[in-house]
Amino acid sequence: MNADRFSRLAMAFARETARSSTARLCTACVDVLSVTGAGITIMGGDQAGPICVSDPNVAALEDLQYTIGQGPCRDAFHTGVWVHAPRLDMDTSIRWPSFVAMARESGIRAVFAYPLIAANSKIGVLALYQSVEGDLTPAQHDDSIALAEILTETVLSLQDDAPPGTLAPGLDDAVQYRAEIYQASGMIAIQLAIPAAEALMRIRAYAFANDQTVAETAAQIVARRLRLPNDHQSETEQ
Amino acid sequence: MSDDALARAATRQTLTATTFVEIVDTLVSDFDVIEVLTLLTSRSVDLLDAAAAGILLADSAGQLRVVGASNEQIQLLELFQVQNDQGPCLDCFHSGQVVLHSNLDTISPWPLFAAECTKAGFASVCAVPLRLRAHTLGCLNMFMCEPGGLTDTDVALSQALADVASIAIIQDQATRDAAIREGHLQHALNSRIAIEQAKGMIAEHNRVDMDEAFSRLRAYARNTNRGLTDVAKALVAGTTDVSAVSATRRSAPPPPPHA
Questions:
Q1: Mutate to test the interface with A, among B171, B197, B235 (most CBs of A within 10 A)
Q2: pTM for this entry
Q3: Mean pLDDT of residues grouped by 10 in chain B (259 residues)?
Q4: CATH of B180-246, one of 1.20.1690, 3.40.50, 1.10.10, 2.60.40
Q5: B89 at interface of A, judged by CB pairs closer than 8 A
Q6: How far is it between the farthest Cα atoms of chain A?
């Protein structure tokens, strides 16, 4: 079978799988690539949401990268090229200090991130996590690039079916997952009379300073148990 | 070969190489496909002893359209082929093969087109397909003042130029297609996020929960005849004030909770 035909079949297959459940895409990546964990994130501007994660550990690491706005996924997305971190050691620690600390704590020793790119447009990231140090094999790397291509087509074709302006069901999970964070940023925008984008930065900063995830901080704000301090006020727990 | 002929051959070789480099160079990033096709017509004239050249491409409905011509007169001749449904370009497009007519004075398969060409001062024509594998995208048409058409070498060279241009066209279509689909995804993502942010704003301003905030957002959108996304984005951008939404009375029973 030629490569062209093979990739067409693979894409058709991925599209059908994704229609029944996007959650299976990550387990498929883990199986096909023989890695410890995988996460697929879609990005809109600076906002990101996972459409699937292979396990809670991966979810926590993806959340952390979102909280601090740093890590291999961010880098892969912004540069548009894959990022390999085969050893989470001193060197990578300088690049992503908090991420490396938490990844090591949760038993992850290597991370590989591949951007999802259609022509010149970036739509998300496929992240692979390994519990052992070391590079991917050349075959794993090639397969990851192919999978990233297939996943891009999967995401775009899922969205092709959605009415304009609405997200396809499998992709809506990405926003739903962080819905409270967006709601909280709307609330903080009103509380502090600042733009919503800036409100989100404040929430991130608060979460990071207080050793929480953005989701935890947001949940407290939405439950009205927390108001963020104005620049000249100190924070108050209600 | 005379010195003169040798010199001409050398110049042509250089120009051929330069043309390929030029075309490939335009493909690197953010290229304009019309620019590539215009380059193709003008270089075909320079390289192939053709007096003029034109390009027709099929649109999404399979209808041929004139997209480039080395001069205005050719633009009209190409249009003439499409309108009268006859000419070398149409035959070439439908067969995917090179069509060469070396003397338009003799009995032509396209009498109307041949008459127009003769009137315009052309004696022979050649059409080469723009194709990618089995798929024909359109064709490159060359017009010569002398009978005899093009030599085999010239036909091969023009086909090579056409092949490079075909890659440009396919690449351009793929990029556009991806950009449009990516645009839809981004729009939908940003709309969904804006709705959640707007809910938070209304909830905070009115001290209500998220379900109630969403009801008010929907009611306001309905009452003002605007889209839900439009209102949400305007709130987030600050172009619609949150107090305007808050003043809205619900005109319908609350819709099912959104989140």
A1: B197
A2: 0.69
A3: 77 81 71 80 85 88 85 85 88 92 82 89 92 87 87 88 85 81 88 94 94 94 92 93 75 53
A4: 1.10.10
A5: no
A6: 67
